[in-house]
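Structure first, sequence second, as always.
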């Protein structure tokens, strides 16, 4: 039986990402859903993207969402006024990982990857998104800003056919994530375990099995992580 896995907010932590993938033992029929924020803050953004592209080259079924950090990179590419914001949000580490001075110098292969990212994925039993949906809209799938930036927990299940939202974006303690997975009527489940941060119950990258709701927890393996403010 194929497995379905979801991972979010890798943030340049490729050593950690690869350790988690090894433990997952992905099979050709398995599905891997990545929920955005592959870059910025951590030291190995380029290698994270290379790992994802290699998974696809090897025939794995990998679908990737855009996160607010990827969108910020693309916006800064088109509007230089946003470059300082990108740099402040961990973009300096991303440029360093690519060994370039500007976003425009990032190789086309990687920029094409960022442009190809999806905003949301609808499954029969889940909606996957980086941040959240705007349920004040008649159609919550039209607000792309909310998909990337919202931290709202206001959910109207009927608008998404009573499916659960699986998302990242908000660094969350492991105990809180585990408690959320146990709640039958919890329609908004965060799987961002604050991989790139030091702090109580943070510094973890997790993979959620969408069929069993079990999680694999991988402690951060990078030599550089950030203090959570």
């Amino acid at each position: 039986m194929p497995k379905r896995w979801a991972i979010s907010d890798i943030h340049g932590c490729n050593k950690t990402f690869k350790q988690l993938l090894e433990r997952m033992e992905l099979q050709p029929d398995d599905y891997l859903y990545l929920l955005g924020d592959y870059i910025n803050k951590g030291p190995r953004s380029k290698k994270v993207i290379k790992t994802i592209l290699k998974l696809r080259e090897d025939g794995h079924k990998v679908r990737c969402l855009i996160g607010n950090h990827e969108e910020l990179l693309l916006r800064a590419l088109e509007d230089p006024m946003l470059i300082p914001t990108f740099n402040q949000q961990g973009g300096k580490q991303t440029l360093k990982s690519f060994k370039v001075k500007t976003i425009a110098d990032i190789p086309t292969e990687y920029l094409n990857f960022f442009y190809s990212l999806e905003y949301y994925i609808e499954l029969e039993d889940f909606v996957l998104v980086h941040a959240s949906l705007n349920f004040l809209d008649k159609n919550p799938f039209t607000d792309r800003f909310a998909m990337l930036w919202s931290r709202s927990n206001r959910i109207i299940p009927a608008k998404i056919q009573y499916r659960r939202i699986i998302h990242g974006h908000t660094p969350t303690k492991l105990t809180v994530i585990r408690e959320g997975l146990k709640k039958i009527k919890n329609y908004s489940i965060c799987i961002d375990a604050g991989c790139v941060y030091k702090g109580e119950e943070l510094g973890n990258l997790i993979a959620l099995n969408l069929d069993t709701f079990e999680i694999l927890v991988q402690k951060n393996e990078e030599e550089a992580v950030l203090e959570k403010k």
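Margin note: Residues 83-98 form the longest helix (16 residues).
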